[in-house]
Amino acid sequence: MDRLEKAFDRVVLGDIVTGSDTLRGGNVAVRGETIAAIGQGPPPEAAETLDYSGRLVLPGLVDGHMHTGSQLGFPGIAWATRSAAAGGVTTCVDMPYDTPAPGTDDAILAEKIAWVERTAHVDVALYGTIRKSGGIGAIAGLAAGGVSAFKLSTFEYDPVRFPRIDHATMREAFAEIAKTGLPVAVHNEDQELVTQLSAAARAGGRSDPLAHCQTRPPLAETMADQAIFELGLATGAHVHIAHSSLARGFAIAAQFRAQGGRATGETCIQYLCMTEADLVRLGGRGKCNPPFRTGAEVERVWQALLADQVAYVSTDHAPWPLSRKTDPDIFACGAGLVGLQSFAPLMFTLLAERGLAPGLMATYCAERSAQLHGLYPRKGAIRIGADCDLLVLEEGRFHFDEAAIVDRPELRWSPYHGRALRARVAATLLRGRLIWDGEQVLARPGDGRFVKRQPAPGGT
Ligand SMILES: [Zn+2]
User: In the structure, what pLDDT confidence band is assigned to residue 20 with cuts at 50, 70 and 90?
Assistant: First the structure.
C-alpha cells in the first residue's frame, strides 16, 4: 500500500502513560507532527511502526526551568538541547540570564530565537527579564515577542547577567508584567542575610560544604518568598517562586492565594532527593542555590507535592564546567547542577521508590509546567491534537553514568553519578520524529523550534 493511503504516518506502541491512566498495550498514532489517535489493543495501520511494547510511553518532559547560556551564551543552546533529547526532555524553558547579554529586550529575544531555530535539538520556550534599572519599558515587547514568563531575582550573582532587582523596581516591574498576564518567576533568596552570613563565615575561616547551607538558611528563602508575594498581591502579578527547597514556600504561596493573590511555586528534582549530607559528600559538585536541606525537609517537600501544592518539578539545570565545581573552598565553586539527562530516569526512580505512579511524572514534569508557561495543550500531554512529543522509558536496574552525558565534554559530570536507577530513556520523539534511539541523538541542530506562549482563552 502506498504511504499516502495509510491512515497514519507512524504509530508508537507501548504502555501509554497519561496523567491519571496507563493504557497497557496502547498506541499513539501520528499524522504529520501531531497526535491523531490514541488507543489500546490492535494498532491502526500506519506507514511506520515504532514498537515499544512493554515499555512506558510518557509525554516528553517540559523542563520549566533550566539555563543554557550562563557560561557560553547562545552557543550553549545547541549542547544543552542535545542532552535534553537524550534525557527525554522535549521542551526546554530556558532562563534569560545569558552571558554576555541577558534577555532584557525584544532585539536580544529575536537574536536568541534565531539561535534556537538554527541550533536547538528540542523545542525551546524562553523567559524574559529586565535590566537592573531602567528596563521596565521593554516588558511589553518581550511579551509580544512570545516569552512564556518573566524571571527576576532578589539575589545578585552579577550586576548585568543576573542582577538583584530592588523592591521599588520590582513593584513597578510586577505592575507592568501584570498587564501582560504572564507569570513572573523569582529567584528567592534574601541578599542582605546571605551576604552578611557568608562574609561572617568566611571571616571565621569556614570554607567547608556545610557552610554553604548555613549561610543560605531557610529564613533566607522564606523572607524572600514573603516579600515577592506581598509585591504580587499589591500589583496583581502572578508571582511564582522559581525554586523552593522548602515545604513552607508552598504553604506561603497557598496563604497568599487564600488572600486573593496569584501565587505559585515550583520545586526542583534535587529538593526531592538530595540532603546536606549529599553536599558534604559531593563538595562543589553538589552546590546549588537554594542549597540542599535536611532529609526531614525533603520528606516535607514530598508531602507538599502529594498535597497538590507544588506547581511543577524542574531541573534548574545550570551547567558549570567541572573546573568551576571542584575548588575545596565551597564559596569559590559555581552554584548549579547538571541535570537534564538524569531528570526523567531519576524522577521515575524517586516515584517508584515511594510506590508512586509514573503518571505523577507526566503531571508534574510535563503537563503542569506546560500549563504554567502557556504551552499546553500543544505541549505537555499525550492528547489528540498535541505535538507528538514522547518519552519512552525502559524499566530495569541501571546506574546513572556521567560519561554517557552528550553535552560538552566539560559538562559530563553529574551529582547523581553512580546512583541506582529503575529506568533509562529508551527513546525520545519530538513532533513525531525519533530524536534519541536509546544510543544516539538523531536530532540535528535546528530540528528544535521556538515555542511561543499561547494566549490564554479569554484574553490574557
Ligand atoms: Zn535557575
Answer: confident
Has residue 138 been placed in a domain? yes
CA 48 to ligand 1 centroid distance, Å? 40
Answer whether 311's CB lies under 8 Å from 372's CB. Answer: yes
Residue 53 lies in a domain: no
Ligand 1 centroid, distance to 151 Cα (angstroms): 9
Task: Tell me which residue range forms the domain holding 316.
Answer: 67-372
Cα of 423 to ligand 1 centre, how many Å? Answer: 26
- The CB density around residue 278, as the number of other CB atoms within 10 Å, is 17
Q: Tell me if 145 is assigned to some domain.
A: yes
* DSSP label of 410: G
Per the structure, how many domains does the chain have? 1
- How much distance in Å is there from the Cα of 203 to the middle of ligand 1? 28
Residues 329 and 417: their CA atoms lie apart, in Å, by: 22
Give the closest residue to 315 by CA, choosing from 95, 38, 115: 95
DSSP-derived letter for residue 415 is T
Hey, what amino acid is at 69? G
With bands split at pLDDT 50, 70 and 90, how would you rate the model's confidence at 1? very low
CB 70, CB 318: distance < 8 Å: yes
The answer to the question of residue 403 being in a domain is: no
Question: Looking at residue 234, which CATH number applies to its domain?
Answer: 3.20.20.140
Question: In the sheet where 34-40 sits, what is the strand order?
Answer: 34-40, 22-31, 8-17, 46-59, 390-399, 420-430, 433-436
In 216-339, alpha helices (H):
218-235, 247-258, 276-282, 295-306
If we measure between CA atoms, which residue out of 399, 403, 421 comes closest to residue 412? 403
Q: List 63's β-bridge partners, or say none.
A: 92
pLDDT one-digit tens code per residue, 216-254: 999 999 999 999 999 999 999 999 999 999 999 999 999
Q: If you measure from the C-alpha of residue 176 to the centroid of ligand 1, how many angstroms do you get, rounded to a whole number? A: 23
| Angle of the 76-87 helix axis to the 340-353 helix axis, nearest 10 | 30
417: CA distance to ligand 1 center in Å?
A: 21
